[in-house]
Amino acid sequence: MSEQQNFDVVVIGAGPAGYHAAIRAAQLGLKTACIDAALGKDGKPALGGTCLRVGCIPSKALLDSSRQFWNMGHIFGEHGIGFDNAKIDVKTMVGRKDKIVKQFTGGIASLFKANKVTPFYGFGQLQPGNVVSVKQHDGSTVELKGTNVIIAAGSDSIELPFAKFGEHIVDNVGALDFEAVPKRLGVIGAGVIGLELGSVWNRLGSEVVVLEALPNFLAAADAEVAKVSAREFKKQNLDIRLGAKVSKTDVKKDGVHVTYTDAKGEQTIVVDKLLVAVGRRAATKNLLADGTRVKVDARGMIEVDEHCHTGVDGVWAVGDCVRGPMLAHKGFEEGIAVAELIAGLPGHVNLDTIPWVIYTEPEIAWVGKTEEQLKAEGIPYKAGSFPFAAVGRAVAMAEPAGFVKVLAHEETDRVLGMHLVGANVSELVHEGVLTMEFSGSADDLARICHAHPSLSEAVHDAAMAVHKRSIHKAN
Q1: Is 14 known as a binding-site position?
Q2: Among the listed residues 54, 55, 81, the one whose alpha carbon sits nearest the alpha carbon of residue 68
Q3: Handedness of CA 319, 11, 297, 159 (dihedral sign)
Q4: What gap in Å lies between CA 318 and CA 282, rounded to an integer?
Q5: For the chain, what is the total number of helices (H) and then of strands (E)?
Q6: Is 243 part of any known ligand binding site?
Q7: What is the per-residue pLDDT across 129-168, written as a single tens digit (0 to 9) for each?
Q8: Which of 84, 176, 270, 334 is the most interior residue, by most CB within 10 Å?
Q9: Backbone angles phi, psi at 403, to 5 degrees
Q10: Residue 60 labeled ligand binder
Q11: Start and end of every Pyridine nucleotide-disulphide oxidoreductase dimerisation domain (predicted)?
Q12: Cβ atoms within 10 Å of 456's Cβ, excluding its own
């Protein structure tokens, strides 16, 4: 083992939370190291975590490719654009995705170099005394001593005991790399990953069946948003079966036999590929040596306070391995906040204004409380909504599905939530985030001039509808 190296900050993990923490710490003049164990398809180190390698970025690349193909057969005709026998070359599509991934993972390496962050490639384990032992890919071990250590270990896919990952049963990683469009694709879980990757292969011609154990579709979303989304997915022939609890899988010559139980009793479907998308768990296995005093809860999450501090001097944790939503952008903000706290600056993340997005077609997005939550908590509120079908830009794009809903406190008018389903709502949701972050009111939002014609006009009219003064619909 080589001599121990000393740093002001040692970051374990170079995913969204980790690389943001490392770069910001280095910008603030702190001597910083960042450890990551991931390898790319070429066997070389690949920074960026699940998000850049096998999550957010590659899935959006495939979603966009599949959307172009879908539009050729379903929307372009309305524009007077005709195609004969459109085909998809899956190898080229996946290759494009891989190039994008390599571009962005390489980009993180360049940013580390530019900001003088020292990378270490291997598996890091926290030892007592803020020492991190790194088992590098060549088999050697180095020890890094950090005045501060930031744990940003991320998360892993949950594997079901009766559906072990392999050639035919896959997680999000495998579903990004199919060599051909499966004739039949089964998906366990109608969450973000299940809906997005199910949509990709459905658009390309696969017969997709999504099995969701819960009785309600998108239970975390606004009920009206979930209802409209489900209706649009049905039009796309995405077969979503609710209250379907999978109990068994069996890989046979003719495919994967999936046994589930719903209101009709026990049933079986046969698929060529099965995607298991039932959630993720914190990647904290073997991360902490004995004696670190860092606490881990029953779900494997590292326990932290509101400032992401573990209670052990100089040890912090951020991103998917701590409480709060497992979202890359939440990790971004926590990583930056902790780096600034370490440097003696104010740092804070408001978990109440973290936006959620599902990049299906139409897109689904929200921030803040749903109507159901407000009712359950006894908070008086007013609601205003506006449909994209009445927005000129949406109709001109031939994408009129969905609406925007603004929820405001009945007495103070402060915006409490915004819920959207429709084209490009992943961009529009930030009007709600910004308004809430500045404690703005529905009236504030209604009085801001929005460009015409634009999709954002739906936000404007929804805010006006809170006070029953929408111009473009009956109040």
Answers
A1: no
A2: 81
A3: positive
A4: 11
A5: 13, 21
A6: no
A7: 999 999 999 999 999 999 999 999 999 999 999 999 999 9
A8: 334
A9: -165, 170
A10: yes
A11: 354-462
A12: 19
Provide the H-helix boundaries in 184-261: 192-203, 223-235
Residue with tokens 């993972």: 105
Domain range list for the chain: 5-156+281-351, 169-278, 362-465
- Sequence letter at residue 365: A
33 a known binding residue? no
Superfamily of 362-465 according to CATH = FAD/NAD-linked reductase, C-terminal dimerisation domain (3.30.390.30)
* Shared fold status for 5-156+281-351 and 169-278: yes
**β-strand partners of 198:** none
* Residues written for the chain: 475
Q: Are 209 and 271 in contact (CB under 8 A)?
A: yes
User: Does 440 belong to an annotated binding site?
Assistant: no
212 annotated to bind ligand? yes
Q: Do residues 245 and 255 touch, judged by C-beta distance below 8 A?
A: no
Give strand pairing partners of 366: 356, 419
In contact, 32 and 26? CB cutoff 8 Å: yes
Is 194 annotated as belonging to a binding site? Answer: yes
Residue 20, CA distances (Å) to 7, 28, 123, 359 in order: 17, 12, 19, 23
pLDDT band at residue 174, thresholds of 50, 70 and 90?
A: very high
Identify the burial level of 134 via C-beta atoms within 10 angstroms of its C-beta, where 0-12 means exposed, 13-18 middle and 19 or more buried. Answer: buried
The answer on whether 191 is annotated among ligand-binding residues is yes
Strand order in 239-242's β-sheet? 169-170, 273-276, 184-188, 207-212, 239-242
Q: Look up the CATH architecture of domain 5-156+281-351.
A: 3-Layer(bba) Sandwich (3.50)
Looking at residue 205, its amino acid is G
Just give the CATH number of 169-278.
3.50.50.60
Per residue in 12-59, pLDDT tens? 999 999 999 999 999 999 999 999 999 999 999 999 999 999 999 999
Residue 88 gets the label, from left (phi > 0), alpha (psi -120 to 50) or beta, of beta
Each residue's pLDDT tens digit, 365-407: 999 999 999 999 999 999 999 999 999 999 999 999 999 999 9
Catalytic residue numbers?
452
327 is in an annotated binding site: yes
CA angle 257–263–268, rounded 5-degree value: 10
- Whose CA is closest to 334, among 114, 13, 7? 13
Residue 408 region by backbone torsions, left for phi larger than 0, else alpha for psi between -120 and 50, else beta? beta
Question: What's the rounded Cα separation, in Å, for the pair 144 and 122?
Answer: 12
